[in-house]
């Protein structure tokens, strides 16, 4: 075998192991009984150590050197070597005992978080979350020393390859300066409209699920390679060609669960659209989380909160729940789905206030990793940040610092990709509807094929062939431009008023 073939076979085996871990993580979040937590944590930790051992195999360096000297490789193979070297460089920074310790700590903390969130009791989670944070700092330092990065940037790099906090600071400071006045304008425009009539429930879970499945089908989700379930925190996970998405239901309000399904379906479409020929290779993976979040937010925010989509969906919502009257009219439903409100919960936030939630988390996690903030002070720091950025104060921990699963599960450095993704989504959607004249008319008919075809060609099928900046520039003609996101907000929340 050539050196490249050796690498491809080796990473094919790693991919198989990653797929098994993906299904175990889904099971942990969706259906695993509480009593299995300790056993599952040990199993996952052992598999993570095994995977880490394969990623730092002593043969990889020689294979990489030899393969990179091979002039006969094509663009995909060369990009695959680039990705393999990036992963190998990062993984060789970590000792196996640190990988095992982190896996066990996050498994235990994530399970404890579920109860702490239900009880709104941050203090009960603090010891386990402290252990996770200590290990994340250690991981960040180890990777940072290898990459020449700060600990936080080294953690960020796992989710956004090439991403740097210095650039994010500039973008987020600009948004933090822009959003307060814009939010006031949007709220003022909204106040000039008649009050929204109430949607009277209850809305049975089985009917909500049926509606969600119908919408997933319209979007193009492949049910032969995926499924919908329930979890405490909605997510997209699973394995290659086995994409598991989840949502959570509230019988008093169907709108949140439905948008959760649409959001996670956006993630799933990206996963299902990656090239089969490279599915088991690093180059066949999604490029990074800002692009992944762009796909979920493009579906949820750009497409499915548009007047075109609501015009298609409102009659189906009315039929699903037996609704009648003005509250179920398309224009009223569109206003409901584009309502701006200062709230406590990130996943329920509108797209105007959502970036403020992300900016808060980004600033806090950066300070916590650097040791510039004390984890015990997190509830107070969270409350202060919410007052500063959104003008509201969470009444309890469940609606404050306990609402997200990311930190308990080890996802430090993930949060900024949400708002980077929102800006990317606006730019990609703008280019898609310009390039594909039937995209918006198709959405109005419930036909997402024109939009999905453009996304397949320009994003999904590209996988990790290109860097994020290269992909975005090729697809839209320019690098990330916050002006497109701001213009989208103005059109939807001010011009449409």
TrEMBL record:
This is Metal-dependent carboxypeptidase. GO terms for biological process: proteolysis. InterPro entries: Peptidase_M32_Taq. It catalyses: Release of a C-terminal amino acid with broad specificity, except for -Pro. Its cofactor is Zn(2+). The active site is at residue 264. GO terms for molecular function: metal ion binding; metallocarboxypeptidase activity. Binds 1 zinc ion per subunit. Keywords: Carboxypeptidase, Hydrolase, Metal-binding, Metalloprotease, Protease, Zinc. The keyword Ligase does not apply. Zn(2+) binds at residues 263, 267, 293. The lineage of its organism: Bacteria, Pseudomonadati, Pseudomonadota, Alphaproteobacteria, Hyphomicrobiales. Belongs to the peptidase M32 family.
